[in-house]
Automatic annotation (TrEMBL):
It catalyses: pyruvate + acetyl-CoA + H2O = (3R)-citramalate + CoA + H(+). It comes from Halanaerobium saccharolyticum subsp. saccharolyticum DSM 6643. One of its GO terms (biological process) is L-leucine biosynthetic process. This is Citramalate synthase. Belongs to the alpha-IPM synthase/homocitrate synthase family. Its EC number is 2.3.3.21. It comes from the Bacteria. SUPFAM superfamilies: 2-isopropylmalate synthase LeuA, allosteric (dimerisation) domain, Aldolase. Pathway: Amino-acid biosynthesis; L-isoleucine biosynthesis; 2-oxobutanoate from pyruvate: step 1/3. GO terms for molecular function: (R)-citramalate synthase activity; 2-isopropylmalate synthase activity. Keywords: Acyltransferase, Amino-acid biosynthesis, Branched-chain amino acid biosynthesis, Isoleucine biosynthesis, Transferase. Residues 3-268 form the Pyruvate carboxyltransferase domain. PROSITE patterns: AIPM_HOMOCIT_SYNTH_1 (PS00815), PYR_CT (PS50991).
Length: 524
């Protein structure tokens, strides 16, 4: 058997806390895994619940391009005939060519979890595999707790594998079910298994010791041919080995051709698809696929990356569908700002060294006052624009006022705004649920006849962070406003001890940035 990828997101991944995939979710994930180039997809345990049973019915209509679907179950129950065990019968009804059977590889489990003699566990394995083989199925044998079992009673753990092999199993999968084994132990144990049993082995690693990737890599180095894991490392307790880390490591560092280059570029989209389908928040610092995996913040790093990205990147981000990003903050140097300005379309010749230094000094000073530009790039870009001698703002604010009114125990607000737009004086009022909403309504009402395009955008998120909580209601706050039009979203920032002022500053930036984009000024 060549190297194969085995995804158990739909089975072991579903055993992770907070994961509740619908049947439709499972089918959509199946489609994406298949397109990505996964060889085997463990779809579920048909004996466990009606949803998994329905999955095996539905998946037969899917015309998969690449993957084989695998149905999962335990070996037969103790003291029961295999042909009478519904778990096993449902495997036959699942309409698959491949099944995965797990059984105990640790004497402790046989004695305490199953509470049967050691011999009965071997008999369960033998009966189940023989029966499934007689019924024409390919059988992957998952030796549950194999590594802990080997450490406790190596003769018995090996006997479990030998029994499965003699009964006709097509592959012996060594499971680190409790996820606590060490790479050095994996190496020694697999060497011993390989010296005694002449069969292909697979690896199923859990991540309780944060070593699932390391343990799977050691298994690979020792000749394992199948790697079972999940997208994003979902799974029981701390999860399974994350295929989003394991696959690119094997492919890009060990040179194994597991998927095509094009498929590998779908790794990040696959991670996002599965994470979002599972209703989870993607983790920025996930190796390879996280938003921050190739994001540079420290000035020293960005200075070097501009000269040669290899200085601070272990692979090219595009290989896994990711991208390089640079942040500007108080930890930035000139390089961060130059990178960012170029990225958004500025001609760097427009900025003298002096202006860049002045801008970066301003960023550091403002961050010391509570601004945070890495999450508010639109405000940063506006700051750079305002350094252009020939830049005229789209409007000039004269003053504004807000009032809150309580009537019949319901509070609402009104705002009044005086400004000049295209040399015309505007004096306008509007109401809103609260003062910021009233100001937003008023501002847009004042601008709409001059810039009708502002109706295409709206505020989609508004976050307030108290910066010095000890000062109570007099504390300084940072307001981040996210605005979106039909194509993109952008974030702006304001900081003040007055929440209305902080919100107003962020609001003004958000509208001004929109007008910059709409007026076709060089911003991508
Ligand atoms: C390491 C792993 O991740 S293995 C996969 C674990 N996944 C799951 O458990 C999710 C799906 N599970 C289920 O839907 C249910 O647990 C079922 C349908 C399988 C069983 O439900 P129930 O019959 O109500 O039993 P329950 O879950 O309480 O206990 C499990 C039974 O399986 C037995 N069992 C455990 N491991 C094995 C095994 N390897 N081979 C055979 N039987 C086993 C246990 O001894 C216990 O038997 P008992 O009821 O006679 O005491
Ligand atoms: C089979 C399995 O999921 C395990 O041993 O962890």
């Amino acid at each position: 058997m060549g190297l194969t990828l085995y995804d158990t997101t739909l089975r072991d991944g579903s055993q992770g806390e907070g994961i509740a995939l619908s049947l439709d979710d499972k089918l959509r994930i199946t489609r994406q895994l298949d397109r990505f180039g996964i060889d085997f997809i463990e779809g579920g345990w048909p004996g466990s619940n009606p949803k998994d049973e329905a999955y095996f019915e539905e998946v037969q209509n899917m015309n998969l391009e690449n993957a084989k679907i695998v149905a999962f179950s335990s070996a037969r129950h103790p003291n029961m005939k295999v042909e009478e065990d519904t778990n096993i019968l449902k495997l036959l009804e699942a309409g698959v060519d491949y099944v995965a059977i797990f059984a105990k590889g640790w004497d402790l489990h046989v004695k305490e979890a199953l509470q049967v003699p050691l011999q009965e566990n071997l008999k369960m394995i033998e009966d189940t595999i023989s029966f499934l083989k007689e019924n024409g199925l390919n059988v992957f044998f998952d030796a549950e707790h194999f590594f802990d079992g080997y450490l406790s009673n190596p003769e018995y753990a090996l006997k479990v594998l030998e029994t499965a092999a003699e009964a006709g199993a097509d592959l012996l999968v060594l499971c680190d079910t409790n996820g606590g084994i060490l790479p050095s132990q994996v190496r020694t144990i697999i060497k011993d298994v390989k010296s005694k049993i002449d069969m292909d082995i697979g690896m199923h690693a859990h991540n309780d010791g944060e070593l699932a990737v390391a343990n799977s890599i050691v298994a690979y180095e020792e000749g394992a041919v199948q790697f079972q894991g999940t997208v994003g490392g979902l799974g029981e307790r701390c999860g399974n080995v994350d295929l989003c880390s394991l696959i690119p490591t094997l492919q890009l560092k060990y040179g194994e051709k597991l998927v095509t280059d094009q498929q590998l570029k779908q790794l990040k989209p696959l991670y996002y698809f599965v994470t979002e389908t599972a209703n989870l928040i993607p983790r920025n610092n996930k190796p390879y696929v996280g938003k921050s995996a190739f994001t540079h913040k420290g000035g020293i790093h960005v200075s070097a990356v501009r000269k040669n990205p290899h200085t601070y990147e272990h692979i090219e981000p595009e290989l896994v569908g990711n991208e390089r990003r640079v942040l500007v903050s108080e930890l930035a140097g000139k390089s961060n700002l130059l990178y960012k300005l170029k990225e958004v379309g500025f001609d760097l010749n427009d900025f003298s060294d002096e202006v860049i230094k002045k801008l970066i000094k301003k960023v550091k000073k403002l961050e010391n006052q509570g601004y945070q530009f890495e999450g508010a790039e639109a405000s940063l870009i506006l700051m750079a624009f305002r350094e252009f001698k020939d830049y005229n703002s789209f409007f000039e604010i004269e003053d504004f006022r807000t009032n809150s009114i309580n009537k019949d125990n319901h509070t609402y607000s009104e705002a009044v705004l005086k400004m000049t737009v295209k040399k015309q004086k505007v004096h306008i009022a509007a109401e809103g649920d609260g003062p910021v909403n009233a100001l937003d309504n008023c501002f847009r009402k004042a601008l709409v006849s001059f810039y009708p395009e502002i109706t295409e955008s709206k505020l989609i998120d508004y976050k307030v962070r108290v910066l010095n909580g000890n000062d109570g209601t007099a504390a300084k706050v940072r307001v981040l406003i996210e605005t979106a039009d039909l194509e993109k979203s952008w974030t702006t920032v304001g900081v003040s001890t007055n929440i209305i002022q902080a919100s107003w500053d962020a609001l003004v930036d958000s509208i001004e940035y929109l007008l910059l984009i709409k007026e076709g000024i060089r911003i991508i």
